Amino acid sequence: MQKIFEEVSLLGFGCMRLPQKNGAIDYEAAEKLVDMALEGGITYFDTAYYYHDQTSESFLGKALTARHPRDQYTIATKLPLSVVQEADDLERVLDLQLKRLNTSYVDFYLCHGLSADAYFNKFKPMGVEAFLKRMVKAGKIRYYGFSTHDKPEGLKQLIDDAEWDFVQIQLNYLDWTELDAKTAYQHLVDKDIPVVVMEPVRGGGLANLADGPRQLLERRFGGQSAASIALRWVGSLPGVKVVLSGMTEPYQMEENLDTFSPFVPLTEADKLAVANIVTALKSLPVIPCTACNYCNVCPNDISIPRIFARYNNYVMFERPEELIAPYERFIGEGHRAEDCEACGICVPFCPQSIDIPGWMQRVVEKREEIRQER
Questions:
Q1: pLDDT the model gives residue 351
Q2: Concatenated DSSP letters for 261-282?
Q3: Separation CA 285–CA 210 (nearest Å)
Q4: Which of 49, 227, 273, 289, CA to CA, is 20 to 30 A from 175?
Q5: How many whole angstroms separate alpha carbon 367 and alpha carbon 284?
Q6: Is residue 374's pLDDT more than 80?
Q7: Half-sphere exposure of residue 46, counting CA atoms within 13 Å on the CB side?
Q8: SS3 126
Q9: DSSP string of 155-213?
Q10: 186/170 Cα distance (integer angstroms)
Q11: What are the structural domain ranges in the chain?
Q12: pTM of the prediction?
């Protein structure tokens, strides 16, 4: 099964964070990135039905397939699970995606954000595996897999129940232990399933480290960027076949191409240095939330783990903006720290014994402090 990635570049271009102008894809700037990617040896282009308000696939149809020979690259896109309500929707949606992409086939087709729950309760009864196999025979897709944010045990259920050509997971040197990505990765390696990695730099967080971790990185790696070390750490794992990077600026493309041309795996001493960086990151004054969701008893449905994750990103990566724009984008009104009534109902449910109301108040105060400094 590993052979399907033999001629695919280790660095993949994730088309979820393309340059924008006036709220839409900046075609001229994004087209230049596509050309840079191809010239630099990237052959894996990853998109999805939803990306850029459903315009990413169409962009690739114009910037990639309409301008470059189809045998020079591979395309990965994803089945939008929320759009599929019945079996007849499966091929209808795929045909729409092929039309957007201006191609007769997709090389890598993924069930987008699949969980064990969704698979066993909805998509297995719908016959999704039989559909995917039928599309392979029809020549509309070459290989199929899924992307997932499910826990390792959910992932294992998925790969034990059906045959998958590859799987895409979130993996980086911090989530290796924080989200137990190590176990998820090992489940895939044990079954000889190729791994495609998303969020290798944790949404850009591992590119901007706080002072302590940054000093450790500079001591070992000198002038190499934090982002390049994060990418090399992931790419050094033998089961990883593609490392996706959502590049928005030409300098990011240039730096990543330099990192992978040629790719130099981390040494054991390098990996030890990265482990020390992880220890330093975890020693920062973060909220010890593991996102177990036991606190979801909140009568106001406060997004407790999400709020704490934004706060922790602010602390670990010195990114005050985490508590402003991303916070407000991903945490809906009425479910924010400001809406906590400090009733304390959630506190006994927390395995980490976190003072949830106290931390909620601290988040509110920090958000106000950041606003005043701007």
A1: 78
A2: TTB-PPPHHHHHHHHHHHHHHH
A3: 12
A4: 49
A5: 19
A6: no
A7: 24
A8: helix
A9: HHHHHHHS--SEEEEE--TTHHHHS-HHHHHHHHHHTT--EEEE-TTTTTGGGS--HHH
A10: 13
A11: 2-276, 304-373
A12: 0.86
